[in-house]
Each structure stands twice: as structure tokens, then as C-alpha cells.
Amino acid sequence: MENQKLLNKAIKNFVGKYKKSPFFKTTEVACGIKTEIYLQQDCILSVGYSNTNNKIDNETFVLSALEAFKNFDLDFLN
Description:
- By secondary structure, this protein is an alpha+beta fold.
- The chain has helices spanning 2-18, 58-72, and strands at 23-29, 32-40, 43-51.
- A three-stranded antiparallel beta sheet has the order 1-2-3.
- Strand 2 and strand 3 (43-51) form a beta hairpin.
- It is globular and about 35 Å long.
């Protein structure tokens, strides 16, 4: 649940800076989940990955999105 709160905070900080909600695209890859963050549908900002250890659940998607935010701008998580 803590990671979900952190992701919500990152999204809120992103909207505060760009005045737009981020667009997320998630894809299952060989080692887990890949999440891409877009400002617009054709403007990719960052990519994050999360290893699933053969188990895909909500936490896997949240961790992948957090990694993408961290790779883009760590300040969104503060």
C-alpha cells in the first residue's frame, strides 16, 4: 500500500508540473512488466521495469511505474 501512495504522489506532482495527467502503457516482457510514461500519446518520457518472479499482481505494476518515474525525475517521488 505504501508504494501505491508513493505512485499517487508522483502522479500528483507530475500533474502539478505539466498540467496534464501522464499516460501509461504497460507491457508484459520476458522478465516482468515494462511501464512507459507518456506526456502525450506519441511523446514517451521514461521507461521502468519490474521483475515478477513468475507472479504478476498490482504491486508489480506499481513498482514498474515507480521505476519509470524514478528514471525520469526522482523529484516526483519526494
